[in-house]
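Notes from hallway chat w/ T.B., transcribed later so I don't forget. T.B. wanted the structure written out for a chain they're using in a teaching module, and asked if we could keep both sequence and structure tokens in one place. Agreed to drop them here.
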Amino acid sequence: MTTITLSKEDLWYSVLGGAALSTGGGGSAMSYERFSQSVDPIFDEGLEPKLIDPMDLQDDERIVMPTGIGGGISREDQEIYGPPILRQFAYRDIAFKEMDRVFPLLDWAEKPEEDISLAAIERLKEIKGEERYIALLPDEIGPNIYRLALRGAREGIPVVDADSAGHRAVPEMTQASFNVKQLSATPAVIVTRWGDMIVYERSLSWQRLEDISRAIARISGGSNSLIMSFTGKEIREAAVHGGFSRTIKIGKAIASAGKNPIDNIVEATNGYKIFEGEILAHTTEGKGAYTIGNGWINGTGEFEGEMFRFWYKNENHISWLEGDPYVTSPDTFTVIDSETGVGMSNFRDDIWSLGKKVSVLGVKCEDIWRTERGLRIFNPKHFGFDIKYRPIEEIMERR
């Protein structure tokens, strides 16, 4: 099994490149200083993050895909089990004591370990009769993808250079290449921050898995972890290859761009600058374990006098130019800080300051989303908009 060792610079480039591709979701890009605090201990211990080509996977090798389910929730849902801040792991003992006052715990109930997904992975091995996992698979591409590489370094296994979302971040389990290829999502194991563990034996569809796991997230502080596994053959044939290495390539282009990063990003992604301007407004609300809202950008430069609006559900999905439908999912569009080249996250309301200069990067979706089943799964009508999907290249040719 041939692997590539990733340097600290590679991981930092994956943060920048992941933020440019993630369409506003998949976490949020942090400062280099905060990134270093997470990464330096791994390298100081002599551990090595590694990347493996999916084509090197053997048919019967087993690969685990940890998935984070979550987003925003209402105030009422936040307060079900006490003050929301107490749900942070550092306040675990206080949180359980507070919850016990309202909803008495069982005397023998166990408090979860810090990494709640580890127990879920072991349970999945038991259920599926899998002795070990030889690699980790990213479920999507975003600025937090480097964390999976760190986890792999601790466990002594590589990360597969592939993902199931198609070189982007997505809000729902159903928007997965494995769904398009009709692979089974079950059995799977769901764990919450409180330590609950739910074995999901069988499902009618990937959408049902999404809906049920999302409902669990809503009553669990807004998130949970869902663990599933696949064979090497399944990943070779059904995953979208090259996502991690692509983030590194794009991140290098951003880091080397100096004061004009947008042109470099457009070239590195083979994408389009579909708009530029200044932030006018950005709204957000937590609903059903999703973060949902709209953004408005007032045009400048070649877009002077025009208004760009977009709607997001964790990630950006629908846009309008002067009130007319514009670029939509499954094609991607990400709002980029024009000065730094960093992709703007919908999970950080503080960065959407009035008047900030931004550009909007559009990229053609992966081919799997242009198939008949792909477009049935991922299109504007899935999100409740009566808009017909138009390929981004056709829109830009007319523009």
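Follow-up for T.B.: The two ends are 47 Å apart (CA to CA). Might be a good example for the class.
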